[in-house]
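G., before I forget:
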Amino acid sequence: MRAFLLACIATIVIGAVGYFTLDAMQQPSGVAYATDGARIDPSWSWRATAARPCEPRHVWQWFFVDLRRPRGEPDICSVSQ
Amino acid sequence: MAMAHARIRLIVAAIGFLIVAALAAAPAAAQQPNSVNPTASAVKEQQLLQQNYRIQGLGSIPDVKSYVIEQPMGRTWRLFHEVWLHWFGAIILLGVIAVLLVFYLVRGVIRIEGGRSGRMIPRFNSLERVTHWMTAVSFVILGVTGLNITFGKDLLLPLIGPDAFSRWSIMAKYAHNYSSFPFVLGVVVIFVMWVKEAIFTAVDIRWFIEGGGMFGHKHPAAWKLNGGQKVQFWSAVLGTIGVAGSGLFLLFPFYFTDIYGMQIAQMIHALIAMLFVGLIFAHIYIGSLGIEGGFEGMASGEVDLNWAKQHHSLWLEQELGQGRAAAPPAGATTRPAS
């Protein structure tokens, strides 16, 4: 009985070591199985864009390919998916 | 001249007949199936899929696994996982249980002939027992959680419902991953401890020829591990190499191989695991219900002298020669070892 109890404790302890080992080495399955190039940034959404209005670009900016961002404009206006 | 006219008329008539026949046949020909197969492109794709295990394109992003467009092996793998593995597992596990049941009904418990002597002899030390039970406990966790992946959806889901099954399956998946560590470590220690005892010798051939004492009342000689235990030992070692090796591919997806390699790894993992569970069913039966006194070796570490004489006579002689037999326990009914 004592050998069995010791074995159970050893199983739990070594299992915990396994937990920390895998936690350090494994990627989350959502990352491991996803395709990098097509992964969606969950922090980005159209609703967020609408909530924080972006400054419309002028025609001359497009014409001269002026891609500068107006001062103070949030990143979300320029970085799209 | 008239002859020539007649020939000309005949030729004209023949040409006229051919033209009329051709015109008459034209609508019929128009009703024949088009010679261009409208599904030709699909056929070509299917042929392509048969020739190649996947269709892969070119891409500009760093993640090369995204270049795989179609992989028909995925359908084969799903068929394996959803159909073939169920049948294979059911046949192996129920088959082993049926064989053991029939054996139990026919042969019954293999008793200690002559009864217990009351004298005990140490068989397994503390390290051996703790390692054995650690491996056993983790194997049971691995077996139950692993079988849940194959059979849980069919057997457990209808009983406990989707919510409970989902929670249980998530816990089971993590328990499966973590308990693999003590299991593999246990088998490694067992290998180191018993490998010298597990090498096959001529004694084992004799043991197998005589059926290991399972049939009739012959008790073939054996050292510390008999032929059957050696088969068990090497099956467990090789099985662990198989499941642990293939399990690494599943624990670390895309680290070592692509999706095709992972599908193969999962198939190997599942097939070996099913055989392994079947093997352990037999091991549990023999070590508990099948042979009287067999369980004591792993429970208390000591076995009765008559049990040892019956099942491991060469080992007993060796141990007695070294003076390892203990005195009878206090209050035990002492009978001499025959």
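Chain B touches chain A at residues 59, 61-63, 65-66, 126, 129-134, 136-138, 141, 174-175, 177-182, 185, 251-254, 299, 301 (CB under 8 Å). The longest helix of chain B spans residues 157-194.

More on Monday.
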